[in-house]
Each structure stands twice: as C-alpha cells, then as structure tokens.
Design a protein that fits this description.
- By secondary structure, the protein is α/β, with parallel strands linked by helices.
- It has one domain.
- 30% of the residues lie in helices and 25% in strands.
- Strands 1, 2, 3, 4, 5, 6 and 7 form a 7-stranded mixed sheet that branches.
- Strand 4 and strand 5 form a beta hairpin.
- The protein is globular, with a radius of gyration of 16 Å.
Length: 169
C-alpha cells in the first residue's frame, strides 16, 4: 500500500459519515454497491427486554441531551441533516434513491432495482454539541436494527463506541 493510499484511508476516518458507511455498513465488503434510504423519525421504535431498556436509541440520545425533554428528542432527530450524498468511497457505488414512502417500504422492489445490493434505512445522524460524537439508527430487513454511537478520538479519528442491536416493531 502506497503512502498516498494510507493518507486517503486516514482522511476517510476523519469524515464521520464516510466512516459510518465504510467501517460499519460495508465492513464485510471489498467492493460493490449499497442503497441508503432515509428512515423517518416516527419509524424509530424499538422493542428490547426490560433489562436493555436504557440502551435503546432514544435513551442513548437522551444521555447526550439530558436537558432536553424526551418528547423534544424526536424533533432533534428530524431536524438533523441527513447523510451527505456527495460521499465517495473507492470501489463502491452508493445509491441514494429518491423514493416515495410507499416505494421505500417495498424492500423486494428496491433490491431488484439495485441488483440485490444491501439496503439500509438510516436515521439522521445526531451530533453531540461538541461534534465529537454522533448517534445513528440503522435498519436492514436482512440484518435487523441497530443503534450506533460513533466518537472521535484524541487524534481526530472516528471509531465505533457502542453498537446495540434492536428489533423494529
């Protein structure tokens, strides 16, 4: 691997959304394509055992915004900007299809349209006030749902801090 490739990889980890796509969603792929679809805030509902209750998306988000009323957290997620559609990752094609609500619910049609590429429904990434942490909810009909907390280390490199599997109701 050349020095230029190493720098390119380092720079990739400095962009939080690129890190999310490359290291989390595409971690087991070396090339191909992926379909990313925005998930509506109202669709982020989880069902976990009572012992896991505090690990749900809204509870994690509440820990980063403790002064915010719980009913206001949905507004924070809904108003957060979605993933940057200009993200480019070498050897991967990232599809951001514009779909109606009805079309986005037809998983079979989406996979067929994009030649059976993995499909992920992704919430708006919500950043902490210091911009060193972000929380995102991801759902895939093939692999289930997960809440992911991604943080920036002292060197400015993003890493997965917490990943909790959940079940969509």
């Amino acid at each position: 691997m050349s020095l230029a490739n190493v720098r390119s990889q380092e720079n990739m980890d400095n962009k939080p959304e690129a890190y999310l796509i490359r290291k989390v969603l595409l971690q087991f792929h070396t090339k191909g394509s992926i379909v990313l679809i925005p998930i509506d805030t109202k669709d982020i509902k989880m069902d976990t055992p009572d012992t896991e209750r505090e690990r749900q998306f809204w509870h994690i988000l509440g820990k980063y915004f403790p002064e915010t009323a719980k009913d206001s957290l949905t507004k924070i997620v809904a108003s957060a900007p979605w993933l940057d559609k200009n993200i480019r990752i070498k050897k991967f094609k990232i599809h951001f299809p514009k779909l109606s609500t009805k079309e986005s619910e037809d998983y079979r049609a989406i996979t067929k349209r994009f030649h059976y590429a993995p499909v992920y429904y992704v919430s708006n990434p919500v950043y902490s006030k210091d911009k060193n942490t972000f929380i995102v909810y991801i759902y895939s009909p093939e692999s289930g749902a997960t809440t992911i907390v991604i943080k920036k280390n002292a060197k400015g490199v993003w890493y997965t801090d917490t990943e909790i599997s959940e079940y969509l109701i």
